[in-house]
Amino acid sequence: MNIGIIGAGNVGGTLGARWARNGHTVAFGVRDPNSTGSRELLQKAGSGTLTNMADAAKSADVLLVSTPWAAARQVIESLGDLSGKIVIDVVNPLLPDLSGLILGTTTSAAEQVAQWASGARVVKAFNTIGFNIMADPSFGASRALLFYCGDDAAAKQTVKSLAAELGFDPQDAGPLRQARLLEPFALLWISLAYGQGYGRDFAFQLLRR
Amino acid sequence: MNIGIIGAGNVGGTLGARWARNGHTVAFGVRDPNSTGSRELLQKAGSGTLTNMADAAKSADVLLVSTPWAAARQVIESLGDLSGKIVIDVVNPLLPDLSGLILGTTTSAAEQVAQWASGARVVKAFNTIGFNIMADPSFGASRALLFYCGDDAAAKQTVKSLAAELGFDPQDAGPLRQARLLEPFALLWISLAYGQGYGRDFAFQLLRR
Fold first, then answer.
1. Would you place residue A115 in the very low, low, confident or very high pLDDT band (cuts 50, 70, 90)?
2. Quick check: ipTM above 0.95?
């Protein structure tokens, strides 16, 4: 699969490198392809290309958007025509001090992203746990739960596969507007990890009977 | 412990009956103590008293408020002086069709309840899973996770004990404002259970490593 990573920080870098190591063709869209950090990223991935964001988007069937919320609109609108592409929205609309969400309840970052990424099939995913869990979602014999939501069934199926191959237990949370619940769920993880002493090495599992 | 149940529907009825069977003194505050439903509730609990809401509140050290959101303010303000009491707020501010929350992001039902229950020590808890999980939080050898939050450490310790004795894995989510995250978490459970085909027999577990 041709995967573009828009915003190759901890999250985009970790996921892109793992997908590259799994054999996908990954283009890392970065601000400066010649920086030391960018070259280190490519080394970690073992394969893939470093390019600017618009070129990374152009070649991709699946685009992971993991910029900070403040940059998301400008970046997405600069990517050109995204019609038909699968956009995985990882962005959480966090206040800079992590004390709350900038928006929610009646809308979500994902719904905003879907407006900006005109024609794209947006799936919210990989937003509810830290990049250390993305690097390794296994807890002994258990796999970390990963919720995703979106309005396009085929796009969700692709994202589900991309999560399962990394070792997650991917679970469909419903239509894109469910991001109104998954974004607070993300801040719950963040606030427990950084504010309430849980540390970053925890995740959730689904129990059924 | 003297426990008052305000709003003895599925949630209050289930929790109150289980605490009564565990040996606590439970007063069920109901609109009509002489109704068939009320008498059935008392039979299920095996012990306890049926009374009006104000009397249930008066005798209680711990008060479980599990009315619908629309009734919460009027009911809480009618209970008289709640100074020093522990109020467990189970109320989720759900739209009647369950399509969203009436409030959130910058406030929560719990923070509103804390204003109405002047002087009480409010703990948000038992709001994130259905009453069937409250009846039995065990999934094989695993226990369902139960988050609670509040601003009074001693009150939280009491609620933690009351959850643990029912078989939950109670976890502290931090101060009361964390209800801004636990109320969307509740709607996530509800929407998956009723709208996304998960059914009601699921819960979450915390994974650590």
1. very high
2. yes
Helix-helix angle A10-21:A36-45, to 10 degrees: 30
Residue-wise pLDDT for A129-188, tens only, equals: 999 999 999 999 999 999 999 999 999 999 999 999 999 999 999 999 999 999 999 999
Alpha helices in chain B (DSSP H): 10-21, 36-45, 53-59, 69-77, 109-116, 131-135, 153-164, 179-194
CA distance B5 to B153: 22
Interface-testing mutation among A181, A183, A187, with chain B (most B C-beta atoms within 10 A): A181
User: Given the structure tokens 């794209």, which residue do they identify?
Assistant: A120
Q: What is the pLDDT of residues B146-160, one digit of tens each?
A: 999 999 999 999 999
Q: How many CA atoms lie within 13 A of B208 on its CB side?
A: 8
Domain boundaries, chain B: 2-194
The single residue listed with the structure tokens 């209800």 is: B179
Instruction: Report percent pLDDT > 90 for chain A.
Output: 89
Largest CA distance in chain B: 52
Which residues in chain B have Cβ-Cβ distances shorter than 8 Å to A184? 104, 180-181, 184-185
Contacts of B195 in chain A (CB under 8 A): 174
From the list A21, A2, A1, the residue with the least C-alpha distance to A134 is A21
Beta-carbon-side half-sphere exposure of residue B111 (alpha carbons within 13 Å): 15
Q: A2-194, what's its fold?
A: Rossmann fold (3.40.50)
